[in-house]
Specification:
The chain has 238 residues and is an alpha+beta fold. It contains 5 helices and 10 strands; from the N terminus they run αβββαββαββαββαβ.
C-alpha cells in the first residue's frame, strides 16, 4: 500500500516538472536597456511635431545686423545699440514758466530750430490790488532823468525813477485804485506825447512763456531740455 502511494507521488512530481520545463523552465528574461544619459550641451533630437515655431531671420550683409522676417509692416527697424528717440505728432505746446524774460529768450532758439512758429508770452496774476501808470525802462539813468525833465515841462509832477531791479530806469507815473482812473492818466500822458502804460498791480509776479507749434517728428529729447511743457490749443497760437 505504501509502495503504491510512493509511485503515484513520484508520477505526479514528474508530470509537474515536465510541465514546468515545457513552459520555459529556467529562461532568464532580458534586462531592460539602460537609459543613455545625454551629453551636456548637446541638443536633444526632436520630432518635427515637437519643434516650436522659429522666427526666420535674414542676414544683412556688411552690417552684422539681423532683421526679423515677421516684423510688422510699417514699423521702423531698430538697429542694435542705437539710442531710441521719442518723437511727437504735430501739436502745440506751451513751455515754461521761465524765471525771467532773459531765460525765456535764451531758450527760444532751441524751439525755433524745430517749430513752425514760436510766440513769446508774458502773463500776470489776476488778483489785482490797484493799477499803476508808468513808462518802460529808458536806456540809462541819464536817459531816464532827461525824460523826467520833459515830463515836468509838460506840467506833470507825479513821477518817480525806479533805481533798481528788473524795472530799473523805468518811470512810475502814479498808482490808482481803479482802472478808470489809471486809464484817464494814461490818456492824459499820451495826449502830451509820452508813451505811458496802464496795468493792474498783481499779488503774483509775472511769468514768461514760449508757445510753439511743432511739426510731426519733433524730438521729445531736445524739447524736454528747454522747460516743462503742457498741451496748448493750436487755435490760440497766433
Amino acid at each position: 500500500m505504501i509502495l503504491r502511494a510512493a509511485i503515484v507521488f513520484l508520477l505526479i512530481l514528474n508530470l509537474g516538472v515536465a510541465a514546468w520545463w515545457l513552459a520555459g523552465g529556467n529562461t532568464v528574461l532580458p534586462k531592460p536597456a539602460a537609459t543613455t544619459e545625454e551629453p551636456t550641451g548637446v541638443p536633444r533630437l526632436r520630432l518635427l511635431s515637437e519643434a516650436a515655431p522659429v522666427r526666420a531671420v535674414s542676414a544683412m550683409r556688411n552690417a552684422g545686423q539681423v532683421a526679423l522676417a515677421d516684423q510688422p509692416t510699417g514699423e521702423p527697424a531698430v538697429t542694435p545699440g542705437a539710442t531710441a528717440v521719442a518723437v511727437l505728432a504735430a501739436s502745440c505746446l506751451r513751455f515754461g514758466p521761465f524765471t525771467d524774460a532773459a531765460a525765456r529768450d535764451a531758450a527760444r532758439p532751441v524751439l525755433q530750430s524745430q517749430a513752425d512758429l514760436v510766440v513769446a508770452r508774458e502773463t500776470r496774476g489776476t488778483s489785482a490790488r490797484g493799477w499803476r501808470v508808468y513808462m518802460p525802462a529808458q536806456a540809462s539813468r541819464d536817459a531816464a532823468k532827461a525824460m523826467v525833465e520833459q515830463i515836468k515841462a509838460a506840467g506833470i509832477n507825479d513821477w518817480y525813477i525806479i533805481a533798481n531791479g528788473d524795472e530799473a530806469n523805468s518811470i512810475a507815473l502814479g498808482r490808482y485804485g481803479s482802472e478808470d482812473s489809471a486809464r484817464r492818466r494814461e490818456a492824459q500822458l499820451s495826449a502830451k506825447g509820452f508813451s505811458a502804460r496802464a496795468e493792474p498791480l498783481s499779488d503774483t509776479p509775472p511769468q514768461w512763456w514760449l508757445d510753439a507749434r511743432l511739426p510731426a517728428g519733433s524730438s521729445l529729447t531736445s524739447l524736454a531740455a528747454v522747460a516743462p511743457s503742457k498741451p496748448l490749443d493750436c487755435a490760440s497760437l497766433r
